[in-house]
Automatic annotation (TrEMBL):
Taxonomic superkingdom: Bacteria
Natural source organism: Nocardioides flavus
Cross-referenced InterPro entries: Hydantoinase_B, Oxoprolinase-like
Name of the protein: 5-oxoprolinase
A Pfam family reported for this protein in Swiss-Prot or TrEMBL: Hydantoinase_B
Start and end residues of each Hydantoinase B/oxoprolinase domain: 43-581
Length: 666
C-alpha cells in the first residue's frame, strides 16, 4: 500500500537538494535524461510508428475530453490540451504545448504509483512553472508496463470557476493568490482507480459551477486513463527497450532539426529588445517591461550537468524585466530552468524555417530544451514572483514574451520574422438567466496575427491549438443575450507592405440586466509593426455604442453593469503590419476594400492609394497616376532614419511622449 506523501520517509538527498520551491518541497527528482545510451540504434520505421501512435493517442485523449466535458470553456471553446511525457518527464509530442509532470514526480516517487492512479494540481507556485493561473486544472496519469511507470498522459485546461473573489476566478484587481480561487498542490485524486470523493467535494464546493467542474474533471481523468491504456498497449506490442529507444530518437531528431534548420539562421551575437504590459489592474497604467537579451553562440561547450550538448545554443536572459506587479499579471517562469517557457516560446523560432510548409512540419517537444539556456533575474520580478503574488492575468506576460522573442530575433535577421499579435483575451457576462438561474459565459476571443515578410497576417487566430470562439447558436440558446454581429473589425490590421490580420468585432444585446467582465491587454498599447509596418488597432469594449449611455469599458473589469436592451461591442486587436505600407501593391489594397477589411478612407490615409469607382457599384479600382503622385509626396520608411518597430500612438502616453524605445532601432 502506498505511503501518504506527507508522512513517507524522505531521502536525505531530497532534504539537501537545491533549489527548493516556495513551499519548502525538494526538487531533486530525476528528470530530463536519456532513456537509452547515446548512439543506441532503432528501426526508423518503428520510430515513425511510435511517433504516429503518440500523436494519435494525444488527439484521442483531446477528442474524448471535448465530447464528454460539460463546460463551454472546455467543450466548446476547446481551451485545453493533452500531452504525453516519458518517465524522465520529457514531453514527447509536439502538436500542442502542455503542463509539466515534474511537480507530480517531485511529491510522489514513481515506485509508489499504481495503475489507476490519477494525480491533480493547479497550485501555481507548486507547479514548477507548468500552471499559470488557478483556473488551469491539471490531471496526470502514469502509464505502466510490467508493473513499472514508463510514461505519463496529462491534460490541463481552463475551467469556468474554481472559486475566488469573482465569477470565473480571475479578479482583475487581485493582490494575492488567495483572492483568485482554490489552490490545490499535487494530490492523488484517484487511488488505484478509486476516486477521492472528499477531494472532489472540496473542489466542487468552492466552485460557483460545481456540476460543470465535476463533469469536466471526470472527463479529463477518464480520457487520460484511456490514453494510458493505449500507450501501455504500445509497450506490450514492441517491448520497453524498443519504445524507449524510439522516444530518444524522436527527441534527438527534433534537437538536430532545430540546430541545423533554425539556429543556423541566427547570426552569432547579442541582441536586446523589450515590450510591455500596460496595466496590472491595481496601479495606474504604466510600462511593465519584459526584456530579452538574446545571445546566439555556434560553438558553445557541452554542459552535461544541464543536458546541453556542445554546439549552437540560444541564451535567453530576462534581466531588465520589471519588478513583480501588485496586480495579477505575474508569471512563475523560473522553475526547472524555465522548462515550460522554453517549450512555450520555441514555436516562434519556427518562423525561421525555409518555407511556411516546412514551418508547419516542425514539432516543439522536449528536443528543443537542450538548445536553449535561460537566465532569470532574482526573485521578485514579473517572471520570478514571490508567493502569494497574484497571477490570474499572466497572459499579459507570457503572450508578450512571444512577441519579445519574435522582436529580438527580428533584429538579428533583418526583420524576417512576423510582426506582433495578441491572441488571447477573456471576455464574458454573468448574472441571472431568464429562468432566474445563475449563469456565467466566459469566452476567449482571438485576434489578428502579424504580417510576414512574404504574406499578410491571418484574421482572428488563437494561440491555443484548436481553440475557437463560442458558436452563436449555442450561446443564444443558453444565455440571455442575442449576438447581433460577429465579423471582422474593419481597419484593425496594421498597415504594411504585408498587412496585419484583423481582429473580431462582436456585438451582443442583453435580454436581461447583467455584468460584463474583461481580462485583456493591448487596449492602450498595440501590436507592433516591424520594418516600416504600422501597429494594429488596440482592443476596445464599448457599452451602448451610439446610445444615450455609451461608454468605453476598461480592459480589466470584473463587474461592469449592462442593462437589458443594451449592446456590448467588443473589438479585438489587429496584428501589426510588415514593411512600408507605401510598398503595398495597390491591387491588394483595392481587394481589401472590396472584401471589407480596409475602409476607403484607410486606403488613402494608410496606403496612399487613390480609389476610383465604388464598392457598391462593383467597379472599384484605383488611379495609377494619382496613386503614384500621392505616394511620391510621402516619405518612405528608412532603416537608417526610422525606428525598426512601430508601437502605435498609445505608447507615447505611457512613455512620457516618446515615439519609440531606445531598443527599437537597429
Amino acid at each position: 500500500m502506498s505511503t501518504d506523501v506527507s508522512t513517507r520517509p524522505v531521502d536525505p538527498a531530497y532534504v539537501t537538494a537545491k533549489p527548493v520551491n516556495p513551499a519548502g518541497l525538494p526538487t531533486a527528482y530525476e528528470h530530463g535524461n536519456r532513456l537509452t545510451p547515446e548512439g543506441s540504434t532503432v528501426d526508423p520505421i518503428l520510430v515513425e510508428i511510435v511517433q504516429g501512435t503518440l500523436a494519435s493517442v494525444e488527439m484521442e485523449v483531446e477528442t474524448a475530453i471535448g465530447r464528454t466535458s460539460r463546460s463551454p470553456m472546455i467543450r466548446d471553446a476547446h481551451d485545453f490540451r493533452a500531452g504525453i511525457h516519458d518517465r524522465q518527464l520529457r514531453k514527447l509530442t509536439g502538436r500542442s504545448y502542455s503542463a509539466l509532470v515534474h511537480p507530480i514526480v517531485r511529491d510522489f516517487p514513481l515506485e509508489e504509483m499504481r495503475e489507476g492512479d490519477v494525480f491533480f494540481h493547479n497550485d501555481v507556485y507548486e507547479s514548477e512553472g507548468g500552471i499559470g493561473h488557478l483556473p488551469d486544472l491539471c490531471v496526470t496519469v502514469p502509464v505502466f508496463h510490467d508493473g513499472e511507470v514508463v510514461a505519463f498522459v496529462q491534460a490541463f485546461g481552463h475551467h469556468d470557476d474554481i472559486g475566488g473573489a469573482c465569477p470565473g476566478s480571475m479578479p482583475s484587481g487581485a493582490t494575492s493568490v488567495y483572492e483568485e480561487g482554490l489552490a490545490v498542490p499535487p494530490i492523488k485524486l484517484w487511488d488505484a482507480g478509486v476516486p477521492n470523493k472528499a477531494a472532489l467535494r472540496i473542489m466542487t464546493r468552492n466552485s460557483r459551477m460545481p456540476d460543470s467542474l465535476a463533469a469536466d474533471l471526470d472527463a479529463e481523468c477518464s480520457a487520460c486513463l484511456m490514453g494510458a491504456r493505449r500507450l501501455s498497449e504500445l509497450f506490450e506490442r514492441y517491448g520497453r527497450e524498443a519504445i524507449e529507444t524510439s522516444f530518444d530518437a524522436i527527441l534527438d531528431a527534433t534537437t538536430e532539426t532545430y540546430r541545423r534548420e533554425i539556429l543556423s539562421k541566427i547570426p552569432d551575437g547579442t541582441y536586446v529588445w523589450e515590450d510591455y504590459a500596460e496595466h496590472d489592474g491595481v496601479d495606474e497604467p504604466q510600462l511593465h517591461t519584459q526584456r530579452i537579451t538574446l545571445t546566439k553562440v555556434s560553438d558553445a561547450p557541452a554542459d552535461p550537468e544541464n543536458g546541453r550538448p556542445a554546439g549552437p545554443r540560444l541564451i535567453i536572459d530576462f534581466t531588465g524585466t520589471s519588478a513583480q506587479a501588485k496586480g495579477p499579471i505575474n508569471h512563475c517562469g523560473d522553475y526547472v530552468g524555465g522548462n515550460f517557457l522554453k517549450k512555450w516560446l520555441a514555436p516562434i523560432l519556427r518562423n525561421l524555417a525555409d518555407t511556411p510548409e516546412r514551418m508547419a512540419e516542425l514539432d516543439v517537444n522536449e528536443g528543443i530544451v537542450p538548445l536553449i539556456e535561460m537566465r532569470f533575474p532574482e526573485k521578485g520580478t514579473l517572471l520570478t514572483p514571490i508567493h502569494p503574488g497574484p497571477t490570474n492575468a499572466r497572459t499579459f506576460v507570457i503572450l508578450r514574451l512571444l512577441g519579445v522573442l519574435a522582436g529580438v530575433v527580428a533584429k538579428a535577421v533583418d526583420g524576417k520574422m512576423p510582426a506582433d499579435q495578441e491572441t488571447i483575451r477573456y471576455t464574458g457576462v454573468y448574472g441571472k438567466d431568464l429562468e432566474g438561474n445563475d449563469y456565467l459565459m466566459r469566452e476567449v476571443l482571438g485576434g489578428g496575427s502579424g504580417g510576414r515578410y512574404y504574406a499578410d497576417g491571418e484574421d482572428t487566430i488563437h494561440v491555443v491549438p484548436d481553440s475557437r470562439n463560442l458558436p452563436t447558436e449555442f450561446t443564444e440558446s443558453r444565455f440571455p443575450f442575442i449576438v447581433e454581429r460577429l465579423g471582422l473589425a474593419v481597419d484593425s490590421g496594421g498597415a504594411g507592405q504585408f498587412r496585419g490580420g484583423l481582429g473580431y468585432e462582436k456585438q451582443i444585446r442583453m435580454l436581461k440586466d447583467a455584468h460584463f467582465m474583461s481580462i485583456a491587454d493591448r487596449s492602450i498599447l498595440a501590436c507592433w509593426g516591424v520594418r516600416g509596418g504600422k501597429a494594429g488597432a488596440p482592443f476596445q469594449v464599448v457599452i451602448d455604442p451610439g446610445g444615450p449611455d455609451e461608454r468605453e469599458v476598461d480592459a480589466l473589469a470584473d463587474a461592469e453593469v449592462i442593462r437589458a436592451g443594451q449592446v456590448v461591442r467588443i473589438r479585438t486587436t489587429g496584428g501589426g503590419g510588415w514593411g512600408d505600407p507605401l510598398a503595398r501593391d495597390p491591387e491588394l489594397v483595392v481587394r481589401d476594400v472590396v472584401w471589407g477589411k480596409v475602409s476607403a478612407e484607410a486606403a488613402l490615409r494608410d496606403y496612399g492609394v487613390v480609389l476610383t469607382g465604388s464598392r457598391d457599384g462593383g467597379d472599384l479600382g484605383f488611379d495609377a497616376a494619382a496613386t503614384g503622385a500621392e505616394r511620391a509626396g510621402r516619405a518612405a520608411w528608412s532603416r537608417e532614419d526610422d525606428a525598426f518597430f512601430d508601437r502605435g500612438p498609445g505608447y507615447a502616453s505611457l512613455a512620457d511622449g516618446a515615439a519609440f524605445a531606445e531598443v527599437d532601432r537597429v
